Amino acid sequence: RTSVSASGTSVNFTSIPSWVKRITVQFIGVSGNGSSMPTVRLGDAGGIEATGYSGSTQTGTSAVLLSTGFDFAGTYQSASRVYHGAMTLTLQNSSTNTWAGTCMVGLSDGASVLLMGGTKSLSQTLDQIRITFTNGTDSFDAGTINILYE
Fold first, then answer.
1. Which among 131, 102, 122, 127 has a CA at the least distance from the CA of 3?
2. Closest by CA position to 10, among listed 126, 140, 103, 101
3. pTM, to two decimals
4. Per-residue confidence at 70, pLDDT binned at 50, 70, 90?
C-alpha cells in the first residue's frame, strides 16, 4: 500500500510491479480547486496514456463517454466537491494489456454517488498510474490518495 497527500496538478504512482493483476485506488476527502473533473490514467514504459479509454461515467442523470481517462462524473465537478471511495482496476487480458476499471465514489459536500465503468488497453505492461484533472491545470487542494495492488 502506498499513500500520498493529494496536491499539485497530478498524483503519480510509479514502479508498479509487472506481476500486478488488481489495483485499488482509494480517495479520502480528495478535492480540487477548479471546475475540471478528476481522472485516472494508466501508463506503461512509454508513459501515461490520455487516449483510448472506453466506457462511461455517471452521476444522477448526467453521463458522459470516457475517452481521455477513467473520469469521475460527467459535468458534475466544482471546486467544492469532496470525493470519498475507490476505483478498482483489474487486468482483463494479459496478452493485450487490457485493464477494466470500475469506480464508486460518494461526495461529502452533497448527497451524490458517482459511478464509472470502462476499459483501456496498453501497448506494454502497466507500470504507472496518474490521478489528475481532465483539463490538466486544476490542482488538488485536499485529501489523501492510496493505492493497493495485488
1. 131
2. 140
3. 0.92
4. very high
